[in-house]
Amino acid sequence: MGGLLSGVTGGSAGGATGNWRKAGVAGAAIGVIAAGAAAGVAIERLTVGRGMRRRARLALDASGPYGTLRGRPGKALADDGTELYYEVDEIEPEGGGAAATGTGAGAGSGSGAGSGGAPSPRRRRLFGRRTPAPVTVVFSHGYCLNQDAWHFQRAALRGLVRTVHWDQRSHGRSARGVAQQGPDAVAVSIDQLGRDLKAVIDAAAPEGPLVLVGHSMGGMTMMALADQYPELVRDRVVGVALVGTSSGKLGEVNYGLPVAGVNAVRRVLPGVLKALGSQAELVERGRRATADLFAGLIKRYSFSSKDVDPAVVRFAERLIESTPIDVVAEFYPAFVDHDKAHALPVFLEVPALVLAGESDLVTPSSHSEAIGDLLPDAELVLVPDAGHLVMLERPEAVTDRLADLLARVGAVPAAANVGTHGSTAQPGA
Fold first, then answer.
1. Which tens digit of pLDDT belongs to each residue from 368-413?
2. What is the longest distance spanned by two Cα atoms in the chain?
3. Once rounded to an integer, what is the mean pLDDT over residues 318-344?
């Protein structure tokens, strides 16, 4: 959910004409959210010119390897006809050859498929042997992000375990939700996202054990899958990891704001988002014009520590700013309505990891603790000095606990060399 408030503020700042006058009070309320970030931006402007800041962003875009890993592409069809894009990273065959192509740091040991001496499918059929389907780890990303948000974990696991990374509807390379368009459009629901995940599993991992990993909205998607398809969980899911997510009561989150400010935002935000979504082109121009403020808000609501690599922060900006404002608007009501605490017991019989940044302002760590109460055998990890995008801010902590979960369920050997792919702290910090 990293881009919700920042996307709204960037848009409202650039569209204060025409229909925007109707949302005047909203600008004042949402301004409370922007105050802390705006102060930092104002100080920065005293010392760094706009042109230099723009050049710095372009340099970070060019130098950062984040989001460059690619796998074998595929498409699944949701129940309303929406095309859902996914990529598969296969297990690297013994003896050489990379499981999937990719560029950038941690992209694996090479590109292209190699035979590596693996027996051919024809020979296995000839002798009547059937190789069991491997464990598949399915990664589901959060609101206003895409599959590349798992960059560090993907880099660490490449070639060691079969993984599926997919883009939620209307995000990344997936198509806009069919049901959310036209005169008969319906709102996005978390239940719909659960059915989308089922469609991706059916297409990309139709057999074999599954480990489900989800961040924020992705974790909610997993809960919706369990709620609607409990037999799938019982029959095939061997492990789950719920990262920075919530089982409900998101309407009570204060986003680190004083009571008066958050109450004002709650009153006006649904109407403001509807207005913003109806003027998407104007809003996107406003976002570009207020890039500095937008960046400050993203950093505040995505990260907690002050020593995160600037290229990682910029990568998060790119992920979030690529989500159109009308998509931001159409997804928001789903979080207010989200309540899946009753579905969590479906995961009671499988090893589970519940992890959150201790300073998460979007889905506070108390929500992960509440999930832990409902899954008492789960490993509960609160990462110090980490915010909502904990898998980017503290990748070494997330990858370490995820690798341990995968070892426990037999997805990777206990002695497997799962690299952390490093801290994102600035050198010398």
1. 999 999 999 999 999 999 999 999 999 999 999 999 999 999 998 8
2. 74
3. 91
For residues 50 and 310, give the distance between their C-alpha atoms in angstroms, rounded to a whole number: 17
Mean pLDDT, range 228-234, rounded to an integer? 98
User: Domain 72-111+122-251+339-408: which CATH class?
Assistant: alpha beta
Mean pLDDT score, 281-293: 55
Question: pTM (2 decimals)?
Answer: 0.78
Reply yes or no on whether the pLDDT at 49 is more than 80. Answer: no
Amino acid identity of 156? A
Number of C-beta neighbours around residue 298 at 10 A: 27
In this predicted structure, the answer to whether residue 109 has a pLDDT above a threshold of 90 is: no
Mean of the pLDDT values across residues 349-354?
97
Please count the CA atoms within 13 angstroms of the CA of 105 that sit on its side-chain side: 13
One-letter-per-residue 3-state SS of the chain: CCCHHHHHHHHHHHCCCHHHHHHHHHHHHHHHHHHHHHHHHHHHHHHCCHHHHHHHHHHHHHHCCCCCECCEEEEEECCCCCEEEEEEECECCCCCCCCCCECCCCCCCCCCCCCCCCCCHHHHHHCCCCCCCCCEEEEECCCCCCHHHHHHHHHHHCECCEEEEECCCCCCCCCCCHHHCCCCCCCCCHHHHHHHHHHHHHHHCCCCCEEEEEECHHHHHHHHHHHHCHHHHHHHEEEEEEECCCCECHHHCCCCCCHHHHHHHHHHHHHHHHHHHHCHHHHHHHHHHCHHHHHHHHHHHHCCCCCECHHHHHHHHHHHHCCCHHHHHHHHHHHHHCECHHHHHHHCCCCEEEEEECCCCCCCHHHHHHHHHHCCCCEEEEECCCCCCHHHHCHHHHHHHHHHHHHHCCCCCCCCCCCCCCCCECCCC
Domain locations in the chain as residue ranges: 4-64+257-334, 72-111+122-251+339-408
Going by pLDDT thresholds of 50, 70 and 90, the confidence category of residue 141 is: very high
Nearest to 19 by CA among 362, 359, 282: 282
Structure tokens at 78: 């949701």
Share of the chain above pLDDT 90, in %: 52
CB atoms within 10 A of CB 73: 11
Which residues, 6+ apart, have CB-to-CB distance to 286 below 8 Å?
10, 11, 12, 13, 14, 15
Q: How far apart are the first and last CA of the chain?
A: 28
C-beta of residue 108 within 8 angstroms of C-beta of residue 151: no
